[in-house]
Design brief:
Elements (H helix, E strand, L loop, with lengths): L35 H9 L6 H11 L2 H12 L3 E5 L5 E6 L2 H12 L18 H15 L4 H14 L3 H11 L19 E4 L15 E4 L4 E11 L5 E8 L2 E8 L10 E6 L10 E14 L5 H37 L1 E2 L2 E2 L4 H30 L4 H32 L11 H13 L4 H11 L3 H14 L16 H20 L2 H13 L13 H11 L4
Parallel strand pairs: 3-6
Antiparallel strand pairs: 1-2, 4-5, 5-9, 6-7, 7-9, 8-9, 10-11
Helix pairs in contact: 1-9, 2-5, 3-4, 5-8, 5-9, 6-7, 6-8, 8-9, 8-10, 8-11, 9-10, 9-14, 9-15, 9-16, 10-11, 10-12, 10-14, 12-14, 13-14, 14-15
Bound molecules: flavin-adenine dinucleotide (FAD).
The site of flavin-adenine dinucleotide has 24 residues, from strand 3, strand 5, helix 11 and helix 12.
């Protein structure tokens, strides 16, 4: 960290006070090198060869410039220009240049595409783990732009159901070029993809979609609306609509094949709690052109391929938000003195910080292990079962704990943490959306219950308990009931975290995690745990090594 580089204004005799006992800005850090749990998880999950490149990425994204851009992108939310000055329909959304810079950076780094081969097959291991490590670091600096980034990479999984459409899109989506031009995607050097499933009457129950799709020969005419459609300046969107044979998945480009602007009418942008750099629109399709993706009536099955990947990214991004909050808290407490002693040395504060660090250890180990399963799923049915079962469980747990975690970290900075420039308020506002979109908490639990009907998935419960070093039974009928599902799913995710920690973290860390979160139940608050002083020191040095 380069705190000496900050120029100070010279004191004059009119200054009323000296500023002291404040921490220097947390910036110009290597987001990879300074994060031992991440490094361990990357190594344990087959990505040792990526370490040098990840450190280069971590240094760049942790620069003061990137922190400043993150602030600018969120202080200047996008604007909808539904009409121009003369009343002509335009349906354009204008983003701040800082947002576009993040898009260009993430696309150049392959966050939107690096897990795919040119033939749109899963790239060989450790592509998933290596990308997730970058995604996790990017999320610490600016999360809003990661919405179109994750949708682009995930949409390609659904497009595989329609090779003719995939052939048009994949070569453009895989380039490392972010092309801002408002032009047909086939004329651009790169493209991004969005998704529209949620309608006013229901987002979870997409079978209630009322948007209609009528075959027109070369494609379909789509008429209807979507209540949430994020990243509206994407070049094409996967949408669900009712075709003659039922709910079907479509690809709707911003321009028709003849080059004219397609009939997407943006009604307004949502005024959101967080995620402010990113736009989320309400949109009407007034005879919009679209290509079918997959069979008519197979819409949900087709789009589920996409959703599994976006759910994984929700968990990775939430862990990233938690990471930035924790790093800010540990950093500040090392500098801030209260009652003659740094906060970092006050026993109760150390327990709070260590308990937060332990929570994040579990989350990082879990999401990286899950990425490893995706890396191996094509070759190994047990890994495929792991990915199927643990994706919704990890999304449920990690996204749910993030807001409370970030609040606790915010409080470690006292009043400074509540103030916008500290970045903590932005992280805090950003966190809940990952739990809500791409299937809200209860919906994730229902999905786990569905997955637990599989033999391989049920057996995994036992294997995870064994790997975690605890005795646990497969869920009985009661535990598999909807009413009890949150308990079952949290248990599953905790077991999976503990098992992942056993494979990646020092034994003392895994032991503390099992003791505080698996063998016994963790209280509602952080820091109410009895972590021995040696364990506290290990956790804090791993969270942010002291130079
Ligand atoms: C910022 C933002 C951006 C978004 N962007 C997009 C986008 O780009 N594309 C898109 O398609 N959607 C988008 N969404 C929509 C999002 O995916 C939905 O809001 C979400 O899926 C939930 O749907 P809903 O809002 O209709 O809530 P509902 O479906 O009404 O659900 C409400 C609550 O009920 C719970 N619930 C549902 N069923 C059950 C059950 N059987 N048992 C118990 N509880 C249940 C849910 O978990 C949820 O907590 C976005 C949302 C937000 C907030």
């Amino acid at each position: 960290m380069n705190s000496k580089a900050i120029p100070k204004t010279p004191r004059s005799r009119f200054d009323t006070h000296e500023v002291f006992n404040q921490s220097p800005p947390y910036e110009n850090v290597d987001l990879f090198e300074s994060d031992l749990p991440l490094r361990d998880a990357v190594n344990a999950n087959g990505a040792v060869g990526e370490v040098a490149a990840l450190s280069t990425f971590g240094r760049h994204w942790g620069s003061a410039e990137m922190f400043a851009l993150g602030r600018q992108a969120n202080e200047n939310p996008p604007k909808l220009h539904a009409f121009d000055a003369k009343g002509f329909r335009r349906d354009r959304v204008e983003f701040h240049p800082a947002y576009d810079r993040f898009m260009a950076e993430s696309v150049a780094a392959g966050l939107h595409a690096s897990t795919w081969t040119a033939a749109c097959r899963h790239a060989p291991p450790p592509s998933e783990v290596a990308r997730a490590a970058r995604f996790y670091m990017a999320a610490q600096i600016e999360t809003g732009h990661l919405c179109p980034i994750t949708m682009t990479r995930a949409a390609l999984a659904a497009l595989a159901a329609e090779p003719a459409v995939a052939a048009k899109v994949v070569p453009k989506a895989l380039t490392r070029s972010y092309d801002l031009a408002f032009a047909p995607f086939w004329e651009k050097s790169g493209m991004t993809l969005g998704m529209g499933m949620t309608e006013n009457q229901g987002g979870t129950d997409v079978r209630a979609n009322a948007t209609s799709a009528t075959p027109t020969g070369d494609g379909y005419s789509i008429v209807g609306s979507k209540w949430f459609m994020s990243a509206p300046m994407s070049d094409a969107f996967l949408v669900l609509a009712q075709a003659p044979s039922g709910l079907t998945c479509f690809l709707m480009p911003r321009f028709r094949p003849d080059g004219s602007v397609n009939a997407l009418r943006f009604q307004r942008l949502k005024d959101k709690l967080g995620n402010r750099s990113n736009a989320s629109s309400e949109v009407e399709f007034t005879d919009a052109f679209a290509w079918r993706v997959g069979e008519e009536g197979a819409g949900i099955r087709t789009i589920l391929h996409m959703v599994q990947l976006t759910r994984l990214d929700c968990a990775v991004a939430s862990a990233g938000l938690m990471r930035m909050a924790l790093a800010q808290a540990v950093h500040h407490c090392r500098y801030r003195t209260v009652f003659g002693k740094p906060l970092y040395d006050q026993p109760m504060m150390r327990t709070v910080l260590a308990d937060l660090a332990l929570e994040l250890e579990g989350a990082v180990a879990l999401v990286m292990r899950l990425c490893r399963a995706l890396d191996l799923a094509a070759e190994d049915p047990r890994e495929a079962a792991y990915a199927r079962l643990i994706t919704p469980a990890a999304k449920f747990l990690v996204c749910k704990i993030a807001p409370g975690f970030i609040f606790e970290a915010m409080e470690c900075l006292g009043g400074n943490g509540y103030v916008e420039e500290s970045i903590l308020p932005r992280l805090y506002r950003e966190a809940p959306v990952n739990a809500i979109w791409e299937g809200s908490g209860n919906v994730m639990c229902l999905d786990v219950l569905r997955a637990l009907k599989g033999e391989e998935e049920r057996a995994l419960f036992r294997t995870l308990a064994h790997d975690a070093g605890v005795a646990d039974r497969e869920p009985n009928e009661h535990a598999s009931s909807e009413a009890f599902a949150r308990v079952t799913v949290e248990r599953l995710a905790r077991l999976a975290s503990a098992a992942a920690l056993r494979a990646s973290a020092p034994q003392s860390v895994a032991d503390q995690f099992v003791r505080t979160r698996v063998a016994g139940s963790h209280g509602a608050l952080y820091g109410a745990q009895d972590i021995d002083p040696a364990g506290v020191e290990v956790l804090l040095q791993r969270a942010l090594p002291q130079g």
